[in-house]
Design brief:
This is Carotenoid isomerooxygenase. By secondary structure, the chain is mainly beta. Helices cover 10% and strands 36% of the residues.
Length: 615
């Protein structure tokens, strides 16, 4: 097989040929109101909480909520776009809002409350945005000189502490997370903010991901970025379970970033029985651009650079020694969430909600969300699929030298660093992005093509794991891996039976649909990664958030339990509503729900945790 054919095959798999595949507005079937996505109500992401609901309110329950289900579903996410007369520019910038659904003996109450961050306090006091966020620059302070701005670069307290992404337990306490070193301890029953923690005060890191891993023992691991004498490095931080989890925190492994001035953007990482899995995508944070942004008062997204012709790297770090064991390469892709990672029969399996590039970040700007109905490219920009990568351990190859040169000739390996592609920051810049349409029907960019038989060219597939179409081949600079698609749905905010199957072999994950052009964009999805089949739940104009699996008291199978999800309803007249849906995890059918009518708008949330003892 020639390099040209191989590269063409990979382009078909990821749908990346931007020059040949343009959106055809005529094929998009505008509805009578001039909307490209009439089934998708974008206003659920544009709502702002105007009044907190500090005291729990009663809802209207229907169906059957199991009597054994007791605890609190805690949620975190964007709470308000507004500060005075100003608005944030990106969904990730909105003030953090907590939600709580308290479940006890079949009854449910609801309340919400803003995380009382220093950023929120400063903005409210000034009645304007005075702290720079991911996609929003602060109003310049005329009292600060260029020297003040330069010195502020090296002070963590000058950055945002708006922890609006997720919630995780540390022992019996709960903390909100973002991608800066700050987290906030919250009361799981009142939602009051009780303390602020800066991880940099305990370990030498400058940031960490918003998705740590909690072991059954209670020990917590997270991935951060540290600065070393030789440049930036990824650092695995261990928070041992105990009374002094932060004071006892320490770095157990470090890995130099591939580019000294461009550490990779990290939102999560993987963990298996023996390995930490760091997936280093070619979306980097330019340190030089970061300094420029601080001095010129730009938002943080201006520092992101996407190297589309550079590979995504998979690094396996041995947990026992902290040493790098092996690295692998794949075609470039972008991701936010790893579904799960585990070891099986001499392989490490890594399942990821994948995108060809980071354009989906652009889709979450205020302007892009507000104008999505007039943008024929929007759905394609947000198009992703769950992919399985299989990494063979201790792999060797029978490739001949000529075939090694074939692999090396690909854009993935051994090329000089190309000029970076700057991320776009407004919907008006989306005109040249790929959109796939066939006779008006949306087509998956990850649709399986006919499998190439590289063994005929002398290269052997190093993956010997059964029941997978994922592949791996030895190249001149390392092992190149090619994924398989787990299902033909866009999946986001994936969850598994975490307490029992995190880092272990598993069969099911649950997610929300990320396909805005689906017949029902509010679909909840259960994916069977063994049979590659799906079960779904949806209801017209209902938009659930991240589905969380709660096992039965004595589960007999991996899916013996319920799915909990908060839900909102689309349309301006429905913004003062929030609900809790309870599904049977086996069948994805509704068991019961509780509906709440609130005194103001309730925004859609992102991530959360089920706290069984918070009743």
């Amino acid at each position: 097989m020639s390099a040209r054919v191989f590269k063409s095959f990979m382009r078909d798999f990821f749908a990346v040929n931007y020059d040949e595949q343009k959106a055809d507005p005529e094929a998009m079937r505008l509805d009578g109101n001039g909307r490209y996505y009439p089934n998708c109500s974008s206003d659920v992401w544009l709502r702002s909480c105007e009044r907190e609901i500090v005291e729990p309110i009663e809802g209207h329950a229907s169906g059957h909520i199991p009597g054994w289900l007791n605890g609190s579903l805690l949620r975190n996410g964007p709470g308000s776009w507004k500060v005075g007369d100003m608005s944030f520019g990106h969904l990730f910038d909105c003030s953090a809002l907590l939600h709580r659904f308290a479940i006890k003996n079949g009854r449910v109450t609801y309340q919400n409350r803003f995380v009382d961050t220093q950023t929120l306090q400063k903005n409210r006091a000034a009645q304007r945005i005075v702290v720079t966020e991911f996609g929003t620059a602060a109003v310049p302070d005329p009292c600060h000189s260029i020297f003040d701005k330069f010195s502020a670069i090296f002070k963590p307290d000058n950055g945002t502490d708006n922890s609006m992404i997720s919630i995780y337990p540390f022992g019996d306490q709960y903390y909100t997370f973002t991608e800066t070193p700050f987290m906030h301890r919250i009361n799981p029953c009142t939602l009051a903010t009780e303390a602020r923690i800066c991880t940099s005060d305990f370990v030498g890191i400058i940031n960490h991901t918003s998705h740590p891993h909690v072991l059954p023992s209670g020990t917590v691991y997270n991935l951060g970025t540290s600065m070393t004498k030789s440049g930036p490095a990824y650092a695995i931080i261990c928070f041992p379970n105990g009374q002094h989890m932060f004071e006892d925190a320490h770095v157990v492994a470090t890995l130099p970033c591939r580019w000294k001035l461009h550490p990779g953007y990290m939102h999560t990482f993987g963990l298996t029985e023996h390995y930490f899995v760091i997936v280093e995508q070619p979306l980097s944070v330019s340190l030089t651009e970061y300094i420029k942004a601080q001095l010129s008062n730009q938002h943080l997204a201006a520092c992101l650079k996407w190297y589309e012709d550079k590979p995504t790297l998979f690094h396996l770090i041995e947990r026992s020694s902290g040493k790098l064991v092996q690295s692998y390469e794949s075609e470039a892709f972008f991701y936010l969430h790893i579904i799960n990672a585990y070891e099986q029969d001499g392989h490490v399996v890594v399942d990821i909600c994948s995108y060809k590039n980071p354009d989906m970040i652009n889709c979450m700007y205020l302007e892009a969300i507000a104008n999505m109905q007039t943008n024929p490219n929007y759905a394609q920009l947000f198009r992703g699929r769950p992919l399985r990568f299989v990494l063979p351990l201790g792999a060797s190859s029978s490739c001949s030298a000529s075939k090694r040169r074939l692999v090396k000739s690909l854009s993935l390996v051994g090329l000089a660093t190309p000029p970076p592609t700057r991320l776009k920051h407004s919907a008006s810049q989306y005109a040249d992005i790929t959109y796939m349409a066939t006779n008006g029907k949306q087509q998956s960019p990850y649709k399986e093509s006919k499998r190439a038989r590289y063994d005929e060219d002398g290269c052997v597939n190093l993956v010997t794991l059964q029941n997978t179409q994922a592949e791996a081949y030895q190249g001149a600079t390392g092992i190149f891996v090619r994924p398989e698609m787990l299902c033909d749905w866009g999946c986001e905010t994936p969850r598994i039976y975490y307490e029992r199957h995190m880092g272990k072999n598993y069969r099911y994950f649950y997610a929300i649909s990320s396909d805005v052009d689906a017949q029902n964009p509010g679909t909840l999805i259960k994916v069977d990664v063994v049979s590659k089949t799906c079960k779904t739940w949806c209801e017209d104009n209902v938009y659930p958030s991240e589905p969380i699996f709660v096992p039965s008291p004595e589960p007999q199978s991996e899916d013996d339990g319920v799915i909990l999800a908060s839900m909102v309803v689309g349309g301006g007249l429905n913004d003062c509503y929030v609900g809790l849906i309870v599904l049977c995890a086996k069948t994805m059918t509704e068991l019961g729900r509780c509906d709440f009518h609130t005194n103001g708008p309730v925004p859609k949330c992102l991530h959360g945790w089920f706290a069984p003892n918070a009743v």
